[in-house]
Amino acid sequence: MSAFRSVAAVTGVKHCGRRWEQENMADVEEPEKKRRRVEELPEKMAVDSGCRDTGDWEGRWNHVKKFLERAGPFTHPDFEPSTESLQFLLDTCKVLVIGAGGLGCELLKNLALSGFRQIHVIDMDTIDVSNLNRQFLFRPKDVGRPKADVAAEFVNNRIPGCNVVPHFKKIQDFDESFYRQFHIIVCGLDSIIARRWINGMLMSLLSYEDGVLDPSSIIPLLDGGTEGFKGNARVILPGMTACIDCTLELYPPQINFPMCTIASMPRLPEHCIEYVRILQWPKENPFGAEGVVLDGDDPEHIQWVFQKSLERAAEFKITGVTYRLTQGVVKRIIPAVASTNAVIAETTCRMYFLFLFYSAYIPLNNYLVFNDVDGLYTYTFEAERKENCSACSQVPQKLQFSSSAKLQEVLDYLTENASLQMKTPAITATVDGKNKTLYLQTVASIEERTRPNLSRTLKELGLAEGQELAVADVTTPQTVLFKLNFTS
Ligand SMILES: [Zn+2]
Questions:
Q1: pLDDT of amino acid 192
Q2: CA separation for the pair 446, 475 (Å, rounded)
Q3: Which one of 179, 352, 414, 416 is most buried, by most CB atoms within 10 A?
């Protein structure tokens, strides 16, 4: 389990390859030589010029036909080779790619080259210069523009017949009717909250008749994730196979070192850097006026933290504090590695293919991990559904508390429980026939008004055995219902 835990630690952290890029580039070439090399580059790269052909040429889809029009040793017994599959792929199939970053660029390229022509892409980010080492659909002139727009332009220009529609938005900006139009959704995200939200959205699209799932309401979700040299790719059939929330325990909580360790018993170089960042910076205000915020992108700030961390490390005989580690800790950087993105995107796209025509191949069942930190290791296992998963199980969630427990304890449970991990839960209940907000923290005025409830007991709040509590949170588009169960 622990191996999975670390490998599945994909995400939650904003990926950034700037540091990695700078240092590696500097190692290989002297600055002057590099500058000349860059200046000599023609304005456009060969791949930037679009392809003049507009239609299909002979043999264009031969590579795809090999998969769709003949059986093979791994094909499912029910598979019937057909020429119609290619036509479906070219003309009908509609796919949504979420994320146009490191993974997203790879996914878009792979899908477009495999014959998918109706692709939508959502990304809320703009292009930063540090993205350019691996997000290969972007050029220096694109810095500052929306990733979705530039990625769509590039692919449409380069691949005849492909129509990528960009959305420079958040996934939360769209409703059910938008998501319902797709045959499949592919995620290359770097946030667990966004993954859980889209997972919840797909669950809300499911329809059940007499408790039986209508298979036509299922939109498969393929999810890729990378973190440095580790990555994973998985297939989710909403309502049928393990969902993101079923395996929430795989995502480790964000690492925060205990303050007592940082303050008095540091053991790791990271502890020393955290000490300077959290305690020494606000106390010494090295850059003038009080309240200057430590900026991870300011080399002078990082240099100051680095020097002070070295002093603290020397005091406790700890080695390993470097400038690079300092910036990594301050910015919570996990280096992005282009090759990992390529492997994971390729795997995700291949799964996409297998799934779409899933009678064609025995589907990957259902979770692949990839790790080339030390040698190369890859493995698949079947993630199992959780019987009482709050996102996909249809089983009412239980909250077991004593009637003298305070609302604060319920709130802590919702945020700290490994299988719930909510962020800012808002709790409402129907008391005496009236809908009552017990606690809501996202609106300051309501937070202030409901805060006293946190120190009241469930009984004092008028809640009874079997009472339903409705909980809303950023991790899901739906309200989660909990049934209150009083323990004696
Ligand atoms: Zn689930």
A1: 86
A2: 20
A3: 352
For residue 202, give the amino acid letter: L
CA of 365 to the centre of ligand 1 (A): 16
Instruction: Mark whether 93 is an active-site residue.
Output: no
CA of 340 to the centre of ligand 1 (A): 27
- What is the Cα–Cα distance from 98 to 287, expressed in whole angstroms? 40
- State whether residue 46 is helix, strand or coil: helix
Task: Report CA(351)–ligand 1 centroid distance (Å).
Answer: 20
Tell how far the Cα of 223 is from the centroid of ligand 1, in angstroms: 14
Distances (CA, A) of 199 to 237, 244, 365, 392: 10, 6, 18, 9
> Residue 181 CA to chain centroid, in angstroms?
22
Write the pLDDT tens digit of every residue in 329-362.
888 766 788 899 998 888 887 776 666 665 545 5
How many whole angstroms from 145 Cα to the centroid of ligand 1? 36
Candidate from 183-192, 293-302, 351-360 with smallest mean pLDDT: 351-360
How many angstroms separate the alpha carbon of residue 385 from the centre of ligand 1? 6
Token code pair at residue 408 = 């604060």
pLDDT at 252: 62
The rounded mean pLDDT for the chain is 83
The pLDDT of residue 21 is: 35
**pTM, to two decimals:** 0.77
- Residue 293: phi and psi, rounded to 5, are -80, 135
Please identify which of the residues 51, 162, 187, 260 carries the catalytic annotation: 260
Q: Which residues contact 259 (CB under 8 A, 6 or more apart)?
A: 278
Peptide bond into 366 cis (omega under 30): yes
Distance CA 94, CA 340 (A): 26
Residue 436, both tokens: 């009552």
